[in-house]
UniProtKB/TrEMBL annotation:
Keywords: 2Fe-2S, Cell membrane, Disulfide bond, Electron transport, Iron, Iron-sulfur, Membrane, Metal-binding, Oxidoreductase, Respiratory chain, Transmembrane, Transmembrane helix, Transport
Protein's UniProt keywords contain Transmembrane helix: yes
Subcellular location: Cell membrane
Name of the protein: Cytochrome bc1 complex Rieske iron-sulfur subunit
InterPro entries named among the record's database cross-references: QcrA_N (IPR045603), Rieske_2Fe-2S (IPR017941), Rieske_2Fe-2S_sf (IPR036922), Rieske_Fe-S_prot (IPR014349)
Bilayer-spanning residue ranges: 45-66, 86-106, 150-172
Main function: Iron-sulfur subunit of the cytochrome bc1 complex, an essential component of the respiratory electron transport chain required for ATP synthesis. The bc1 complex catalyzes the oxidation of menaquinol and the reduction of cytochrome c in the respiratory chain. The bc1 complex operates through a Q-cycle mechanism that couples electron transfer to generation of the proton gradient that drives ATP synthesis.
GO cellular component term, pick one: plasma membrane
Length: 356
């Protein structure tokens, strides 16, 4: 006995191609059909670009006229640094004027017809190159720059002046050529090494092998630091910080390192010679100091020479000794600049003891 399947067949009605819906009809803007509206739009664009130029000029004036330490009160915000506030506002006006002018120009005067193009091979024929040239020429005329030179002049002026607030502070901020201040820290001969942040002095007898102390100079840490100007304190934190470690004297490779230390106790700057991050991670088994920012690694048994990472110079060593009470003190200041390199680092006349 046979059965017949009466299930209707499924017919795929999906078309092979969808009809091209085409582009919506172009709706002319007022500036396209009314010359007075076009002139008004031109004036608005020029005004915005001019506002940008004035913002750039105001930025430069404020940069040189306002004292960077001037503070004031703004309602709803409170006390702020007026120098930074004015620079921010004028820079914002400069950038806003360029942005608004460009957007308004595009929406009111530039061509807004939608076009579609078929895909074509990457290599262009000579006819296509000529067509592109004609399109660029048409675009130039469509932007109306050939007719409305005021837009071109104001846009060029706004963009040119906008570059000045970016360049002038950089050049002016370089200041005079560096002198001895880049070589100087607050470390002086006879100054005790104090634990950071407690401010307690360190006896040489209390420094066991493998122990680590984070150190600041006497008078710049603990209760004494509260009497310092906050800016002076921040500068000291940035350049005076020291790491103190006691090594096995038999493992120290450098004679200078032995001479500047005390029975294996050595003191080195914590300011990385790459970009100035604090080098504070000590591996007791390997005697390596690690910078957490970019992984520069220094060998403490070999005068803190770089063994890995982007740093190019060893960490400077601080000469130390012991006073009559058994406390560790600086035998002298640093003999070289601490921290990253700079152009004038090896200029004659700036090294300690150089009278040239």
């Amino acid at each position: 006995m046979s059965t017949t399947d009466h299930t209707p067949a499924v017919v795929d009605s999906t078309p092979d191609r969808f009809p091209n819906p085409g582009l919506p009809p172009h709706r002319p803007r007022r500036a396209d059909v009314d010359e007075r509206a076009a002139r008004r739009a031109t004036l608005q664009v020029v005004t915005m670009f001019t506002l940008s130029a004035l913002g750039s000029i105001a930025f430069l004036v404020a940069y040189y006229v306002i004292d960077p330490q001037t503070r004031g009160t703004i309602i709803g915000i409170g006390r702020i640094n007026l120098f930074h506030a004015v620079l921010g506002v004028t820079m914002g006006i400069s950038l806003l004027g360029i942005g608004l002018g460009a957007v308004h120009w595009a929406r009111t005067l530039m061509p807004d017809e939608e076009v579609s193009e078929d895909r074509h091979p990457p290599a262009a024929s000579e006819e296509d190159k000529q067509a592109v040239a004609r399109q660029l020429s048409h675009g130039w005329r469509g932007s109306q720059l050939n007719r409305r030179s005021a837009i071109l002049g104001s846009a060029g002026g706004a963009l040119g002046l906008f570059a000045l607030p970016l360049v002038v502070p950089v050049l002016a901020g370089l200041g005079p050529r560096p002198r001895g201040e880049l070589y100087e820290t607050n470390w002086q001969s006879g100054m005790r090494l104090m634990i950071d942040p407690s401010g307690a002095p360190i006896r040489a007898a209390d420094v066991t092998q493998g122990s680590v102390f984070h150190v600041m100079p006497e008078g710049f840490v603990g209760a004494a630091a509260h009497e310092l100007d906050p800016e002076e304190m921040m500068i000291s934190k940035g350049k005076d910080q020291i790491i103190l470690v006691r090594l096995d004297p038999a493992k120290i490779k450098s004679q200078k390192q032995r001479d500047w230390g005390v029975d294996g106790i050595v003191a080195y700057s914590k300011v990385c010679t790459h970009v100035g991050c604090p080098v504070a991670l000590y591996e007791q088994n390997t005697h390596h100091l690690l910078c957490p920012c970019h992984q520069s690694t220094f060998d403490m048994t070999d005068d803190c020479k770089v063994i890995f990472g982007p740093a190019k110079r060893p960490l400077p060593q601080l000469p130390i000794t012991v006073d009559d009470e058994g406390y560790i003190v600086a035998a002298d200041g640093f003999r070289e600049p601490v921290g990253p390199s700079f152009f004038e680092r090896n200029r004659p006349g700036l090294l300690k003891g150089d009278d040239a």
